[in-house]
Amino acid sequence: MKALVLEASMRLSYTDVPTPRPGPGEVLVDVRACGICGSDVHGMDGRTGRRIPPVVMGHEAAGVVAALGPDTHGWNVGDRVAFDSTLFCGKCEECRSGRFNLCDERRILGASTPEQKKDGAFAEYVTLPAHVLVRIPDGVSFEQAALAEPLSVALHAVARARTGPGESAVVVGTGVIGLLAVQALREAGVDPVIGIDLDLGRLELARSLGARHTFPAGMDSLEQAVREVTGGRGAHVAIEAVGIAAAIRTAIGCVRRAGKVVLVGNLVADVDIPLQTVITNELTLLGSCATADEYAHGLDLLARGAIDVEPLISAVAPLSDGADWFDRLHRAEPGLLKVILTPRAANTWCSGASPPREPRQAQGLPLTVHAPGGIDSRQVKKHRGSG
Predict the structure, then answer these.
(1) Quick one: DSSP state of residue 69?
(2) End-to-end CA distance of the chain
(3) What are phi and psi of 366, to 5 degrees?
(4) For 74-86, what is each residue's pLDDT tens digit?
(5) Which residue, among 156, 155, 161, 191, has the nearest Cα to 260 in the 3D structure?
(6) Is 169 exposed, middle or buried (CB count within 10 Å of its CB: 0-12, 13-18, 19+)?
(7) Three-state helix/strand/coil letters over the chain
(8) What is the pLDDT of residues 343-373, one digit of tens each?
(9) The whole model's pTM is what?
(10) Cα 318 vs. chain centroid, distance in angstroms?
(11) Could you give the CA distance from residue 93 to residue 90 in angstroms, rounded to a whole number?
């Protein structure tokens, strides 16, 4: 089969590799769509240490059951499926408690470390434990279903915050996870939802997806601006979706006393935090790791149209062009958010799915940046990357 293999740091090769065979309790999935995650881009250059070559990356994916291993039940060849990127055992104490993301034996699809390696879904086929599969509802395309993974991450972060109607929230970092968190918070009844980012185009997108207010991360008196739109107190909750010290400090500074900060971003291993602020304001810092059984809920939200992932998809392109798209994302080409790679030249339409789409280019995005008082202060035209 064909696969996109990370052969060395910054070197991806579209090449032939052996087709995997499903073992007992496993399925072989014919991959139809796989999104490029920021962790894949950071893994390509070696900065995370979690994509040690050689490895096939890719964990945001969807496809069709192609074969069943021995003693595999509950699925049929032809079933349309997405799947959890955390391969959990289902038997340990954490799994029995529903904390599948903290499984004692967990492996991460498409990751490679000294402790574990599991080739991922930037390939024509991938093998998976049957119990991590989730059925794709009718009307949800493979490309949309591939985004069930980052959507589930956002849903898990919101669940960790235990927030809802009557509360306010700040989302620091409006990349893919942050934009999905904006929508998840809105779906949970949180109002207002406030987006903060350096990228003005992403702030406008955040507003179109449900953020009531958006503020540039570099603006003066940012924390005061947040207080002004939250009754003078600050937000009840902050979702931090970047994973660097500056963003975490912003999140801590934007919440009220006794507020909660959910840490989702995971770009660097260690950060400094304003400890006295955390202590004297009795803030709660919550880690949020991957997902814990939010996939089915996420796919249901997609099927009902409660969450919209289409504006996040910058391009759908053949897997054979994957190295070029990785390079463009690594260079932080303006306007690129989620790029989805398809192992087949054209998407295949299964019953209940959206009609097949041609590989496409991202479109231009008009941008309005909103000042703290809600006034449109400036307009900038940004173009999403072509491809």
Answers:
(1) -
(2) 25
(3) -70, 145
(4) 999 999 999 999 9
(5) 161
(6) buried
(7) CEEEEEEECCEEEEEECCCCCCCCCEEEEEEEEEECCHHHHHHHCCCCCCECCCEECCCEEEEEEEEECCCCCCCCCCCEEEECCEECCCCCHHHHCCCHHHCCCCEECCCECCCCECCCCCECEEEEEHHHEEECCCCCCHHHHHCHHHHHHHHHHHHHHCCCCCCCEEEECCCHHHHHHHHHHHHCCCCCEEEEECCHHHHHHHHHCCCCEEEECCCCCHHHHHHHCCCCCCEEEEEECCCCHHHHHHHHHHEEEEEEEEECCCCCCCCCCCHHHHHHCCCEEEECCCCCCCHHHHHHHHHHCCCCCHHHEEEEEEHHHHHHHHHHHHCCCCCCCEEEEECCCCCCCCCCCCCCCCCECCCEEEEEEECCCCCEEEEEEEECCCC
(8) 986 433 333 333 333 334 433 333 323 333 3
(9) 0.87
(10) 20
(11) 9
Please name the amino acid found at residue 340.
I
Q: Is the pLDDT of residue 161 over 60?
A: yes
Q: In this structure, what DSSP letter does residue 365 have?
A: E
Contact 174, 150 (CB under 8 A): no
Number of residues that this document lists for the chain: 387
The alpha-carbon radius of gyration of the chain (Å, integer) is: 20
